[in-house]
Amino acid sequence: MKHQMTAADPADWRAQAAAATDITVDSVFRRAFRIFADRTAVTWEDGQRNYGELGRRAWRLAHVLAARGFARGDRIAILSETRCEYIECYAALASLGVTAVTLNIRLHPDELAACLEKCKPTALLVSGSLAPVADQLRGGSPGIGHWICFDSAPAVGVFEDYEALLRASHDDEPPTVARGDDIHNILFTSGTTGKPKGALISQRAAAVRGLRLAQWFGLTERDGFIGWLPLFHCGGDESLYATFVTGGIYATFKRADVKTMFRLIERDRLSWTLLLPGVITDFLNHPDRTAHDLSSFRFAIGYANMMPLVIARLTEACRIDFYDAFGQSEVSYLLAHRRSGPGELPPLRKLPSPLLEVRIVDDDMNEAPVGQPGECVVRGPSVMSGYLDDDAANAEVFRGGWLHTGDMLQREVDGTLTFVDRKRYLIKTGGENVYPTEVESVIAQHASVQEVCVVGVADAHWGEAIKAVVVLRPDHAATVAEIVDWCRERLSGYKRPRWVQFVRSDELPRSTTGKLQRHELARFALTDDQRAG
User: Fold this and answer.
1) What is the CATH number of the domain that holds 94?
2) CATH number of the domain that residue 435 is part of
3) Burial of 351 (0-12, 13-18, 19+ CB in 10 A)
């Protein structure tokens, strides 16, 4: 008997085809819980959970939230250090299509209140140590009807007990409802240039970011991530998705304590992490490092332009590779990277990542010539879905159908990319353009320099003058004149610093991920002892 063919509404099959070709980060979590069930998923100093246990706890939380009416498109805020419960929240919310509003724990309560007012979540999950901060937010957050604490009996306020809620729930896997264009989380940009904005990261973008990392770094189930980075930052959450794609271990740290890192690298055979300014030198110089077996540690990721000598010493001492990073929350922290081996000075030319189109353009969106700086614009499946409730910012950042990163790069003959600087950091002195990174790369080569940042300061004669803020290596010394003479031999006259300030590393204003906040550095006072002769 022949099958009867009937005409179908084209919209029906197109919708079904769209569903069949979709990708979600929810599917990453479900697959990991199912096929890696007996493997260790998350470890911390005092415990661990395998993928099966983690999944059952995530599904219990999902059922608790679903019973309270939470569904696709709703928002729930998380205020917590990096810990296992945070990962459970990510998986549970992803399964429901609910958006995680990820709050920066270093923000002032007034800044947190502004984030909550902008995002309007209707529940908040918090760690015990931050419960007092959450309690301060109650009066200004009437829309939050559910206050849940990961730890029992906090000393302030009224919070529901997270563990009690899970015990009273059930662990059946919830039905699949999430779609790729659902907003998985809101990542507040690091604010190195001003007020943070909420980047909307879709489930599709989150999944692609994890898959890209797993492929680029050749991750397997034998790899373990040293998760000191916050899960409210792309460096933390993308590394989580990559780990769950491959069935590896994600080790959580409530703070960037290198002694704990050494112990867990040795205990859990951890193999990769990001080492950023403020952490990389602690890791390298800590006297306990050589007392531990760190042979499983195979590579680190970070920023090479400000401290290439430090990176060369780190890779030589630990016998690891280093990937010089370029990226951002709006796109992925893996926009372009380049590897250097043990003891090598990191090359600053980077390879663009897969599944991203990258152009280097002028202000009129014309392709910049090879070797000439232009703005890096990108498009691809890992790009954010926009900034939360900011039409003006979205119109600006997506003009021409590409995401404008605000970063100046130049394309080399071989197709690699060289980072020049943030577009807005350009210093105009005496009619000439100076990119701070060029000056920083010269000063960073001085044997006594551990870290350097260059900013523009007001100058009555030149319009702007160049100031270098320098951190010296332990047990090393240098003078203003010595730094200026070093630059005189290697830079054009208009690119030399007119001011040099020496500071301790802990005096540098940093974002949560260790990025220097240049707008804060530019406010440092100018004093006579900083003036170049």
Assistant:
1) 3.40.50.12780
2) 3.30.300.30
3) middle
Q: Distance between CA 83 and CA 225 in Å, rounded?
A: 13
Record the tokens describing residue 378, joined without a space: 């990108």
Q: How many domains does the chain have?
A: 2
Tens-digit pLDDT profile for residues 309-358: 889 999 999 999 999 988 999 999 999 999 999 999 998 899 999 999 99
Half-sphere exposure of residue 92, counting CA atoms within 13 Å on the CB side?
Answer: 29
Of 179, 201, 223, which marks where a domain is finished?
201
Work out whether strand 99-102 and strand 47-50 pair parallel, antiparallel, or are unpaired. Answer: unpaired
Domain residues for 146? 22-33+44-201
What the block records as the tokens of 189 is 């940009």
How does DSSP classify residue 157? S
Query: Residue 195: what pLDDT?
Result: 65
Cα pseudo-dihedral 56, 167, 183, 68, rounded to 10? 140
Q: What is the dihedral of CA 239, 243, 246, 247, to 10 degrees?
A: 180
Indicate whether 159 belongs to any domain: yes
Closest listed residue to residue 259, CA positions, set 212, 292, 222, 215: 292
Query: Within a domain: residue 256?
Result: no
Exposed (0-12), middle (13-18) or buried (19+): which is 296, by Cβ within 10 Å? middle
Is residue 520 in a domain?
yes
DSSP 295: T
Residue 324 within any structural domain of the chain? no
- For residue 111, what pLDDT band results from cuts at 50, 70 and 90? confident
Q: Which of 151, 173, 201 is the last residue of a domain?
A: 201
Query: Which residue matches tokens 């392709």?
Result: 367
As a whole number of angstroms, the distance between CA 360 and CA 393 comes to: 21
User: What whole-number distance in Å separates Cα of residue 146 and Cα of residue 157?
Assistant: 12
SS3 333: strand
Q: Which residues of 279-294 are buried (b: 16+ CB within 10 A; e: fewer)?
A: bbbbbbbeeebeebeb
pLDDT recorded at residue 52: 98
Give which of 133, 103, 136 is closest to 118, Cα–Cα.
103
List, in order, residues 6 or more apart from 525 with CB less than 8 Å away: none
Per DSSP, the three-state class of 163 is helix
